[in-house]
Amino acid sequence: MAQVTTTRPARSGVSAARVCTILGFVFAAIAVLFFPLLFGLAGLVLGIVGGALGDRPLGWYAAAAGVAGGVLGTVLAVLLVS
After folding, report:
1. What is the pLDDT of residues 1-14, one digit of tens each?
2. Which of 15, 19, 42, 72 has a CB 3.0–4.6 Å from the CB of 27, allowing a cystine?
3. Phi/psi of residue 4, nearest 5 degrees
4. How far is it, in rounded angstroms, from Cα 10 to Cα 72?
5. For residue 5, what are the CA distances in angstroms to 1, 2, 38?
6. Residues 24, 65: contact at Cβ < 8 Å?
């Protein structure tokens, strides 16, 4: 009788730091169009968390993108309202 072994598939290597960083960039992009202060702040926090957890350069870029998205979205909202 043949021996059957079950193995788990290999993990893709995506860490919590990378997930936070990617979500930081996504929230920064959303901040340009919808609720810039809320999503910009969320992008900033997730970028900082991603950078602190080990995704150093990209996490800090996501934090900066969160700030930039929040500021740009606020400026666009003010320009559209007035």
Report:
1. 667 676 766 666 67
2. 42
3. -105, 125
4. 41
5. 13, 10, 50
6. yes
Q: In angstroms, rounded to a whole number, what is the distance separating the alpha carbons of residues 41 and 21?
A: 13
Q: Which two tokens stand for residue 58?
A: 């990209």
Domain ranges within the chain, ordered by starting residue = 16-81
The tokens for 32 are: 């340009």
Proportion of the chain in helix, strand, coil states, percent, rounded to 5: 75, 0, 25
Q: Percentage of residues in the chain with pLDDT exceeding 90?
A: 68
Q: Is the pLDDT of residue 76 over 70?
A: yes
Residues in the chain: 82
Task: State how far the alpha carbon of 31 is from the alpha carbons of 1, 2, 14, 82, in Å.
Answer: 60, 57, 25, 19
